[in-house]
Amino acid sequence: MVGVDLHEGMLERAKQKAKKQLVSIEFLLQDCTKLNIPVKSSLVFMTGNSFQHFLTNELQNALLQSVQQHGSYAHLGKRSIPLHC
């Protein structure tokens, strides 16, 4: 499992939570519109209504295109979007 965030403080909080729960997650400081992660997955998901932080259609499209390179299905908060269309 890989966790990505643009904010180092959020990654530190996530690392603390993962350690407390005894789960192994690789955390990367990256812009989700330009993902460069070492895995592909059948599911890519974002939590906490993160999609709403991508305010323009251009940023939303860049996010979806970036995610599509790494997964075939995206769950973005309360939205589920098939990316293989």
TrEMBL record:
Domain Methyltransferase: 2-66
Keywords: Ubiquinone
InterPro entries: Methyltransf_25 (IPR041698), SAM-dependent_MTases_sf (IPR029063)
Pfam families: Methyltransf_25
Superkingdom of the organism of origin: Bacteria
Keyword Nucleotide-binding: no
Entries under Gene3D superfamilies matching the protein: Vaccinia Virus protein VP39
Record flagged with keyword tRNA processing: no
Protein name: Ubiquinone/menaquinone biosynthesis C-methylase UbiE
Source organism per UniProt: Sporosarcina limicola
